[in-house]
Amino acid sequence: MNASARDQDLGVEFWSKRVNAFSPEDIPIARRIADHVALAVSHEQLAEVERQVAEARARADRLEWRVKSLAEELDSKAGHGRAVGQSDEWKDVLKKAAQVSPTETTVLLTGESGTGKEVVARLIHRASPRKEGPFVALNCAALPEQLLESELFGHERGAFTGAQMSKPGQIELASGGVLFLDEVSEMSLSAQAKFLRVLQEREFQRLGGTRLQKANVRVIAATNRDLRKAVERGDFREDLYYRIQVFEIHLRPLRDRRSDILVLSDAFLQEIAKSVGRPPAGLTREAKTALVEHDWPGNVRELRNALERAAIVCEGGLITAEHLSLRRLNRPPATREEPTSNLGVVERETIEQVMRDTGWNKAKAARRLGLSRTQLYVRLRKYDLEQPAHS
Fold it and tell me: Which of 200, 220, 252 marks a domain boundary?
């Protein structure tokens, strides 16, 4: 017999002895041991699951506390009414703001005019590590192309006609803090190309300058336009779009969160009463119904303006529906499939109706719509609205 065969026989003999060493009486013991082992593993797995659940609950509690504290802080510093809301849509906005605030992430706020995008931007700033730094807001729609670039990047003496001295831009003024670019969709393509470098390289040059400067800012941009469609039309750079759309927060229009209307109204009336030095005005039942049923094309800004006017007209009494002077306009029903096109139709018809009602007085129309005059001009150009020759 060779060595290999002999080793194989020895192996068989060894394992035969090992198996024969167990008696039938050992089986119940082995089963109990196996049960104890399984139970111990089960307890360990259960403990791990409970630990994970507890951690998740703790994270949720911390986030809820953060959302509440941010809202309270904003109320105390930026006017009580504007941060008020009880709808799920508004709570979702606060939740996202609380999540992104501690980071340096660029934020894009989208939504119609008057929905409170700057309010949310300031909330993010106050809850961020940059809260001790400045909050600098620049409305890109309010300035012509060259002036916008000068305001944004600054300029050196002699950079253009009228530049008698050097001037720092908003990027420099916002150093260590937040730069809020409102109506970013109105930025010219030239300014977009230069601002892309700010986001990519964190550096820029003043107009007419040669020295590179560091851009120590966090950028929060806002728009009431569909930037994806602007990219498709060639009006907005695709690379810049992806740079600013890292974390998007969409603010729903007031007509889509009607449960906030009366809560906001009460807060606004409290705020207005302090400014005029009289007790807060109350609302009749009919006035409350009118407020809730109105579509508010100017959103929260229009609501506050309507209440401020009504509080003055009522002369300290109850505000009635007549004091509010709200008019319902015939408009096509909004659909989920085509929200952008329908909202454009609604906005155009609303502006056209208000312009007719005010005799094409742009200052009055802007106040009634809850817009700035610049924002109204932008929309008049956008929808090709001009005063008829016979008006």
Answer: 252
Residue type (1 letter), 169: G
Q: Is 95 helix (H, G, I), strand (E, B) or coil?
A: helix
- In the numeric block, which tokens belong to residue 69? 């504290």
- Count of domains forming the chain: 3
| Listed residue (274, 210, 286, 252) closest to 88, CA to CA | 252
Residue 15: its pLDDT value, please? 47
Q: Are strands 213-214 and 203-204 parallel, antiparallel or unpaired?
A: antiparallel
C-alpha dihedral over 176, 222, 381, 360, to 10 degrees?
-90
Q: Residue 54: is its pLDDT beyond 90?
A: no
d(CA 112, CA 253): 6
pTM here? 0.66
Paired with 223 in beta bridges are: 110
Question: Residue 375 carries which side chain, given as an amino acid letter?
Answer: Q
Model pLDDT for residues 104-152, shown as the tens digit of each residue:
999 999 999 999 999 999 999 999 999 999 999 999 988 887 788 889 9
The sign of the dihedral angle between the CA atoms of 368, 325, 112, 331 is negative
- Pick the last residue of a domain from 252, 274, 295: 252
Q: Helix (H, G, I), strand (E, B), or coil: what is residue 246? A: coil
Tell me how far apart the alpha carbons of residues 191 and 194 are, in angstroms, rounded to a whole number: 5
